[in-house]
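We emphasize that the prediction below concerns an isolated chain of 716 residues; any contacts that depend on oligomerization or on bound cofactors are therefore not represented. The input was used exactly as deposited, without trimming of termini.
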Amino acid sequence: MKRYKAIASIAGITAMSALVTTSALAADQSQSLRDGQRPVATEAAPISPISGQHEQNLFRTSVSLDRKHTLPHPPIDQIPWMPMPEPDAPGVRTGNGVGLSTLTSHDALTGITEELNVNFTPSGEIGGQSIEGDYQGFGNMVDTYDETLESFGSMSLAGGLDSFPRSGNVKLIMRFTDVNGVQRWFACSGSMQDGGVVLAAAHCVYARVPNGIVINDWADIIYVYPGWDGVSNNGPFGQPDGSEVIQNFGYAFGTSFLAGTNYVNNGDFDSDCGLIRLSRGSSRNIGMLTGWYAWAWGGSCATIQSRTYNNFSYPSENCPTAGLHNGRDMYYWSGSIDACPDNQMQLNTGGGNCLDTVWGGMSGSGMYYIVDDNRYVHSVASTSNRTTRGYYCKLWETFVNDMQDFETTTRGASLDIEALRFRAGGSTSVFQGQAMDAGAAVLMVNATNNNPASDGYQIKVYLSTNNNISSGDTLLATWNYNFNFAAMQSVTFNVPAPIIPLDTPPGTYWIGIELDTGADGVSSNNDTDTWDAQQITVLEAHPDLDATLCDAVSGTYYRGETISVTHRTFNFGERISGNVHLEFRASTNTIISTFDTLMEERNYSPLAVGNSIFVNSFVQIPADLAPGNYYIGTIVDESLGLETNLSNNSIADTATITVLECVPDLTGDGLVNFFDVSAFLQAFNAMDPVADFNNDGLFNFFDVSAFLAAFAAGCP
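Result of the prediction step, given as a token string:
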């Protein structure tokens, strides 16, 4: 776990001292705890189930009634950028010019709007930074490659969007309703500030009159796409396709916002900072996956200009090179600050070229500096004249104080275990009736300030026809775990490889889990939906029975005798077979078919993939088999009729046996005894041709004499 970092202000040092003297407060984890006195994000070692079982269920056709999740907005790249306001002329300010605005909160669901901390008294410090530092995402997935490459003279495409710090930057899609009741969509950028809080520009959460459209209102809802790859969420017919896997982390959304009051009231760019709360329960605390930035506020211009600043964003405004800013690509640049007018960081840009200027779509993106491997967002992209100047609004003391309260309230003090990112181990293609590769896992997070006692947790694994995992889907397994969650902690639950029901039709499916609803206080986020479900492909696997061995003990046999046959049948197919049916046949050649004489049959249970039936059987030579030389062979098939390769279903011995006729063996059992005498007498009395031993067409003493002579001689 990362150590706390020192802050660059007297007030921060005082706060750290207070942490030492009030450590007991941390145990309470009440909503009043401040930055540095609240739990920081940690990750526990993976755990495995202590008990549970695979469920032997058939595929449930009712899953088709379970509706998939879809997004109600147009494809992302077709949504226009939020117009970036033109900055004031140098020396001219439209607001109060000091950046010490209060914040105003708004809940789009309730419609409640409130100005916060109107009586706040500034500390007198000129700046400070978080003592917690950043959180670099689950698994500490850090890649610093971009941060050493460029300057503010030229942006470059960002790579590795699934690793921090890029993963902490987001594409924002906002919906507003104008004064005429028309819904308007716009796009911005932002950065993760906590597990469930996003930092953006005020003009991204509160729209005044963008492009002359009179809105003057808060967003209805804002969608958040961390590390968006620019590829997914562009479904058919111009609408998002709910079956898409939106990379790199799916999406979240929020309807509760904060913004600088002076921007909301009069458009003051010195207050152009805003926050988005991700809706608990209905959305996802996605920052627990992506990581988030630390914060900094204020500061002298000399200190600011002594640092190197970095910025990731999604520019989408048209620029001189047509198609370059398409709203799909994340760009990066870094360098030094040219000036610090009022509460702004000013960049002297290159003159309106695509890669050297602040453009629309970059609004709200975080500008950060690095100290001791921590990244502190100090300002957000605010205004630009699209040529020579771009401005980033600095965070200020009131803002960061209210932001911390906003984050703490977002976390909450009630336990909420959330299921995120179920992933298969290895291949995501699997044959019907087979187990997936080992290594499946789901991330369980407690994105709250609640520190519960050790407890038991049960998850159920489901197979679904869509990305909405629920108890209406096909139950694959139930597993039980014991764990002692800490506040703001993530842990991987290892999940034994799911087994796909044999009767599952081939096609695209999703596998996910559902946490027992009694495990916490919020059950609506206990299942892994959308990106958190694993998309898989179920293949039509066919069994392939291969008759690989038939070895009859060679020699001379009379009709009716039994013969020892060693035989083996493999299933070299892709799925378990049905019941196996095997026939022994006698053939005059090495091609065994159903036209050959059937000797006996055997039936066996279904044969799993890679397994074999390896048996020594005793098989009777048919009593009516004509004397001669024969190859003994087998033919196999399976009861489901799913085999497509029948070429290897039969095999013959490599050597022949000789079959002779034993004349007095009338019962055909290969023995000459009393039963044959009885059989002769019955046939003789019935004048059955089998009793005409001298072949004269008569039944008399000579036939009896001939039989007795043959009986006395026996069979050689």
